[in-house]
Amino acid sequence: MQNVANGSGGAIPTNDTLVIPFSRADRRRKIARVQIPEHCGNGHRLTVGNVRIDQRERRWRCRQCGNDRAAAFRDRQRTG
To answer: How far apart are the C-alpha atoms of 65 and 38, rounded to whole Å?
Structure first.
């Protein structure tokens, strides 16, 4: 039995001696561009100061919506 590297760091056990090479372009990680609309779902304008890009989740966040959500949470906790 022969182990053939598949480019992901692991090996695929096989009895075949044929090795199929993969191009480097197939193994490169593709970075998706985040498309930011003009306004968020609540109608806030998404300007440079009002938008936060979350690179880990690859999405944008409206700062005004976040502030509103935090204020509502604090109000619920106080009146709780």
So the answer is: 14
